[in-house]
Amino acid sequence: MTMSIPDDEIVMSDAYVEMLLASRARSARALGKESIPDPTLRAAADLLDRGLVRFHPSFRFEELLAGRLRAAAWATPSSEGVVAFHPPLADGSAEPGHGAEGLRRAWILSGAIASGVSIAGAAFFAWRRARRLA
Amino acid sequence: MAQVYSFAVYELRDRHAAEDATEQVFLQALAALPRFQERGEGEQSTFRVWLFQICRRVLSNERRRQSRRAETTLELAEILPAATDAAETVADRDTLLHAMRAIDRLPDDRRRALLLRFVEEMSTAEIAAILGRSEGAVRVLIHRALRSVAAQLVSERPGRRPHSAA
Description:
Largest sheet of chain A: 2 strands, parallel
Mean pLDDT of chain A: 64
Order of helices and strands of chain B: HHHHHHHH
Number of helices of chain A: 5
Number of strands of chain B: 0
Radius of gyration of chain A: 23 Å
Low-confidence stretches of chain A: 78-117
Order of helices and strands of chain A: HHHEEHH
Strand content of chain A: under 5%
Strand order of the largest sheet of chain A: 1-2
Radius of gyration of chain B: 17 Å
Number of strands of chain A: 2
Mean pLDDT of chain B: 81
Largest sheet of chain B: none
Largest interface: A-B, 52 and 60 residues
Oligomer: heterodimer
Low-confidence stretches of chain B: none
């Protein structure tokens, strides 16, 4: 059985969390303490805001995963995709044996990882760019 | 990648299991990439939502597998101190551990909504798309989750309210 919660209570706690998260970006705390009347709820939100940090994977794992993704991308049929190393080769081709004309869908993986760019972001950027060029 | 990995650490309580899950997520995403359809540009991109939908499925399966095998995963006590060294007091860390245990006992959707909001700093719209709920439902999930955590903290520390830095 669940008890119904007044809408304004939900709106207020949502607004308070929004303010907490926004204050992270501003590195400042100028929040309206009165925005949540329940002090225990406010304290819990404050605690989670401070304590729920983001964990980061090790570089070793990132490199390992980049290698596995690269291998997986290579294993896809050539009509579907081509892996592009970053930066591209001097002649502009993506890989030995794969000319630029084959670059319909490319995934930039290894160099992007080393520079701290997310795999997904880099892969998606490359894919969309290749799609626009196609 | 850090976002997926971090979410996996909170969900699975085990860095190695989180690495395995992260790998699964990205391999599945890579395989499914040809079917992905972008519906927004720039900050409106739906890529992160799509990736976290895959992530949610992978983690659901992994948590189910963990519960079937009754695996003992690392307590967050072993993970959290290193991550919060710079900031808080021992008392605060202790309170945070109580909060983490309370979060772990939450129903799946409440727990995920709370983590996606606080750790990944996602909007309610993004969380709604990931969980397949309405935005209003996500706000309720988060509110209920906060209430549960607050109640747990109060009950575990009689006479004390959760420590607030403010």
